[in-house]
Amino acid sequence: MKLKINILAPIIILAVFLFSCNNDSTNLRKKITGKAGEMVVVISKNAWEGSPGEAVRATLSQPQIALPQEEPLFDVIDVPHEAFKDIFKSTRNIVQTNISQNVETEGVTFTDDVWAYPQATVQIKAKTSDRFVELFNENKDKILSYFLAAERERVTMNYKKTYEKSVFNILNKDFGVTMHVPPGFRVMEQKKDFLWVQYDSPEIFQGIVIYTYPFVSDSAFTVNYQLPIRDSLLKANVPGPSDGSYMSTETRVDQIFNVTKHNGNYAAEMRGLWRVANDFMGGPYIALSELDMENQRVINAFGFVYAPSKDKRNLLRQVEAMIYSLKLNNQKENDTLNKQSDFEVNIEG
């Protein structure tokens, strides 16, 4: 198998933007509109050009981390209050501002599905521009997390409805986990405790590598521990397009590493760039490592994108949604062990 685009593979449309619901009430709602990553900010022209707009742009339009070319977290469109009509009200992500001395209660409110489904909206009310900036900056992390989670959940919802059953079944049977990837993903390499699946089109590919190793200490949740293991497996199992080439981590840039929890289990997320040694391919990646305490193992999902001359933010977010759909079949047993354990993760890499 070669790490390259298979131009003979069928082109599968990954339905990221259209959603339906599982019950009658949500089926009757208007569906969200616009592309993934789009956001409308309802704000006056003066406020947009002043300090409130600067604060909003600094957070919502900041560069997405760990991409080879700069892309914003969100594609922000400012809309004056008087122009906020039906055409904008079905947008997937909306920030509504109200800066006026007439505001009775200042604050930040998060509301789902106000005009469409599945929609994320934030309302920010303040008496003055200075107070708006203060409120926004106090809550900017929550605002970002809210919108990013909404973007991921929309993709995840779609993949749960229609997914590649062959990949799902292999992971369920041989790895004791489930994961939803869209139809069109195919197995590129399968060995004991190792699986590489990939979707190809003439212009892009998206891949996921799943592998496990024993959990021996909390050092398993550090960059210095994880990186050599991953690169060793990639070198052995994911060849590049030319003789002697293979996939590896781009170590000339720092990895972005964060210890967290996933489904209640200790986990770590790593982001950065990958490259093909002895060749010229590369792109962004996101990796999730999760502790299966009952089986004393760490299960890893490494997702990557290759899309030369194309924007990669949304393609990577699709892969992110796939790997974050990972669930342990023995989660109930792990829940019990997690409650009993006083295990603490050493976050120093």
From TrEMBL:
Stated name of the protein: DUF4837 family protein
Organism the protein comes from: Maribellus luteus
